[in-house]
Design a protein that fits this description.
Length: 155
């Protein structure tokens, strides 16, 4: 079952941004490690600016990143994903937003609150679960850490 994740809600459950670091790259790494462990796919939706200024959507193997166009929000994108799905009952939406939770549940999707996803992640992925690629470019197309190192957060 594919996941649709409200990245800002997930980040908020971890304490939010820290200083100048918006920590979205950490969310991407942790979600990617979870997906590898589970053999799943996900769309991760963030409010705000894209991780790469020239891309509102990035496909990183099993992980797709989305940032809503200016003037809209992540909840709108998540509702659109659920509404346009051929089989919304096969989606697992991760959000702690009460209105969005009710909306996607009514549409037939499974919903996890951020703390429920965190508990599932802790069982599946040991801390430090993903290690960055040491090469100049990613080893594989779905090497999320390698792509982040190269284009995302500059680490």
């Amino acid at each position: 079952m594919p996941y649709v994740i409200d990245g800002n809600n997930l980040l908020g459950s971890w304490g939010g941004p820290q200083g100048q670091d918006d920590r979205r790259a950490e969310v991407v790494r942790r979600v990617a490690a979870f997906l590898r462990a589970k053999g799943a796919r996900a769309t991760l939706v963030f409010d705000g600016h894209p991780l790469r200024p020239d891309m509102e959507t990035q496909d990183l193997g099993p992980l797709r990143l989305r940032v809503p166009p200016q003037g809209t929000d992540a909840d709108t994108i998540i509702r659109e994903i659920v509404d346009t799905s051929d089989r919304p009952a096969e989606l697992i939406v991760v959000t702690s937003d009460k209105a969005l939770y009710s909306y996607v549940k009514t549409a037939g999707a499974t919903v996890l609150r951020a703390h429920e996803w965190n508990a599932l992640e802790r069982r599946l992925v040991p801390r430090g679960g993903a290690s960055p690629s040491g090469g100049e470019k990613p080893d594989r197309e779905d090497d999320v850490d390698g792509w982040l190192k190269r284009f995302g957060d500059g680490k």
